[in-house]
């Protein structure tokens, strides 16, 4: 049931679109996340949990990235878990989750892959973390704030499979963004339940339609 809830919320959050003049902070975090719950893995079992290697990781090496978008104007937040992180991936997600008529200014650190943003037509402002954490209004502090909240949310799950990481990130995203609209926890849970009911009703309609085809 918990997996079904995460799946439904992931569908809902996957439709999120940013509108208007967008000041978009973009950053990524890395978290140790292997194949928890998977059986018959082609490797010997680990005696202890995944060891956190320093620096940037990859999905293949069980340290996937979580790319974070934060719109400074609305405070809306989105998370994406790529199997292959690249500048093209970031640009693709921006195109899919921002309104076509929006004016977008992006803020990132000096990571080389973000250099593609300017060539893709976006205004791009960079803070070099080798020297400073902010240069006036050029910073990614909001992204780092979201990371500081998401990381303990994932840690209390005592290990999340990298294949489920997106749905867990979307669950956190859902409640964080709903909190911007209402601080009433009952209302937030009610909205989540309504989304689940609507999705299950949609699935039932599809099943009934398939059933009717048998008699067509």
Automatic annotation (TrEMBL):
Transmembrane segments: none annotated. Pfam families: DDE_Tnp_IS1595. Residues 45-54 have a biased composition (Basic residues). InterPro entries: Tnp_ISXO2-like. Residues 35-57 are annotated as: Disordered. Residues 17-177 form the ISXO2-like transposase domain. This is ISXO2-like transposase domain-containing protein.
């Amino acid at each position: 049931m918990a997996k079904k809830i995460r799946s439904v919320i992931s569908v809902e959050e996957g439709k999120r679109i940013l509108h208007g003049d967008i000041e978009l902070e973009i950053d990524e975090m890395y978290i140790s996340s292997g194949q928890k719950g998977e059986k018959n893995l082609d490797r010997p079992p680990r005696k202890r949990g995944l060891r956190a290697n320093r620096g940037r990781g990859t999905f293949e090496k069980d340290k996937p990235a979580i790319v974070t978008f934060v719109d400074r104007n609305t405070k809306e937040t989105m998370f994406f878990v790529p199997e292959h992180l690249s500048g093209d991936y970031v640009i693709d997600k921006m195109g899919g989750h921002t309104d076509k008529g929006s004016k977008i200014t992006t803020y990132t650190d000096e990571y080389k892959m973000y250099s593609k943003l300017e060539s893709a037509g976006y205004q791009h402002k960079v803070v070099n973390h080798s020297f400073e954490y902010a240069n006036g209004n050029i910073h990614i502090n909001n992204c780092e704030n979201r990371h500081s909240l998401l990381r303990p949310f994932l840690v209390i799950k005592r290990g999340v499979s990298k294949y489920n990481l997106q749905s867990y990130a979307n669950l956190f995203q859902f409640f964080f963004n709903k909190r911007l609209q209402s601080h009433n926890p009952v209302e937030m849970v009610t909205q989540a339940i309504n989304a689940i009911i609507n999705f299950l009703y949609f699935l039932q309609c599809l099943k009934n339609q398939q059933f009717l085809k048998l008699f067509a």
